[in-house]
């Protein structure tokens, strides 16, 4: 029985193709029961690799079944046919993903960014409180509903944290995600705290929201890693960001894992808590904040370039990353964000760096 017939028997009228890989595809469908369109992820067990079937797929199904949060893509139904096909019926991001939104419309105003980032942070807190980590947080995995609210999606690399006899979460050893969103400890192949890794990715996402560009150019991983470890964050001067916003990003992009913010600290940060009325009033100036962080060196930052893509972003991971890790201090080889986005480095930025004295300005080439 073909996919359309299987779905029809379940009350779904199959629509267009949204994405396709070697062993999985995503279709749109109309649910006769729900009376609206959904996304259907179809996985063929006969074509999927063993490690995916034994580890990643069971994790994803288990976690999707337990999640219920307004800012996480809803999973309506999961079923499997006798011929080895798994069907996951999910909420459809009708307005596409956040990356396409920013590419098309540019950086978000801080008020809009605050609302969307609060939705995302609330979803991450919900997961972390359940000891679930996402490990692939990025703008492409943030879908937008009809009202442009954030819906966290793609739990293909998620897992439930394991705790030792003392109740402490054990370290992870699997690299997950894209290099542009990956924390320095992950890029170095160091066993990492998975919840702390998610926080770094949140920092990258917020930077992209308010700056409309990537905080780090991953076309040169070693150079990017060096800049990250020096705690350098470069902000485009033209965006006129408030000090509170910069401070939050700076504290999330903290290379020292013992000092990186916890999800509760993010949600209680003054910028996240700030009301719209207060946000419109003058706050800590950029000059004051930059002065406290070491000056305003002129740098260039990688920009996002608009690309023509489908209205709904769907990413299918062909192969899970291996558990094998490189030697310490050697960055892993991963797909570069710059390869898919493209960069334009023509806008000067203000640099912040932990400690004094500030280094000489350096150009981030793309």
Automatic annotation (TrEMBL):
Gene3D superfamilies: Transferase(Phosphotransferase) domain 1. PROSITE patterns: PROTEIN_KINASE_ATP, PROTEIN_KINASE_DOM, PROTEIN_KINASE_ST. Residues 277-366 are annotated as: Disordered. Its main location: cytoplasm. It is found in: Cytoplasm. It comes from the Eukaryota. Keywords: ATP-binding, Cytoplasm, Developmental protein, Differentiation, Kinase, Magnesium, Metal-binding, Nucleotide-binding, Phosphoprotein, Serine/threonine-protein kinase, Spermatogenesis, Transferase, Ubl conjugation. It holds the Pfam family Pkinase. SUPFAM superfamilies: Protein kinase-like (PK-like). Residues 12-272 form the Protein kinase domain. Residues 287-331 have a biased composition (Basic and acidic residues). Residues 277-286 have a biased composition (Polar residues). ATP binds at residue 41. The keyword Transit peptide does not apply. This is non-specific serine/threonine protein kinase. The gene is TSSK1B.
């Amino acid at each position: 029985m073909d996919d359309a017939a299987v779905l029809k028997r379940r009350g779904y009228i199959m629509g267009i193709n949204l994405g396709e890989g070697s062993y999985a595809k995503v279709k749109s469908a109309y649910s006769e029961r729900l009376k609206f369109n959904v996304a259907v992820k179809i996985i063929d067990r006969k074509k999927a690799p063993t490690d995916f079937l034994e580890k990643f797929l069971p994790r994803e199904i288990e976690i999707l079944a337990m999640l219920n949060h307004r800012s996480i893509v809803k999973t309506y139904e999961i079923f499997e046919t006798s011929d080895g096909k798994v069907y996951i019926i999910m909420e459809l991001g009708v307005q596409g993903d956040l990356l396409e939104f920013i590419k098309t419309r540019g950086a978000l105003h801080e008020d809009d960014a605050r609302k969307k980032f609060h939705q995302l942070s609330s979803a991450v807190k919900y997961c972390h409180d359940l000891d679930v980590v996402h490990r692939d947080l990025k703008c492409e995995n943030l879908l937008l509903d009809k009202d442009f609210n954030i819906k966290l999606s793609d739990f293909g690399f998620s897992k439930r944290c394991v705790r030792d006899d003392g109740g402490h979460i054990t370290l992870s050893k699997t690299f997950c995600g894209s290099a542009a969103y990956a924390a320095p400890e992950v890029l170095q192949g160091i066993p990492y705290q998975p919840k702390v890794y998610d926080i770094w990715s949140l920092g990258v996402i917020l930077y992209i929201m308010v700056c409309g560009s990537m905080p780090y150019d991953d076309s040169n991983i070693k150079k990017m890693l060096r800049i990250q470890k020096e705690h350098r964050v470069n902000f485009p001067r033209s965006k006129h960001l408030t000090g509170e916003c910069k401070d939050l990003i700076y504290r999330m992009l903290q290379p020292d894992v013992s000092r990186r913010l916890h999800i509760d600290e993010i949600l209680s940060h003054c910028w996240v808590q700030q009301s719209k009325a207060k946000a419109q009033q003058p706050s800590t100036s950029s000059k004051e904040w930059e002065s406290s962080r070491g000056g305003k060196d002129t740098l260039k930052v990688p920009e996002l370039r608009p690309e023509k893509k489908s209205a709904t972003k769907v990413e299918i991971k062909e192969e899970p990353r291996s558990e094998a890790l490189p030697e310490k201090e050697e960055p892993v080889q991963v797909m570069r964000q710059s390869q898919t986005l493209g960069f334009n480095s023509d806008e000067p930025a203000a640099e912040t760096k932990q400690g004094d004295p500030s280094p000489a300005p350096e150009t981030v080439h793309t």
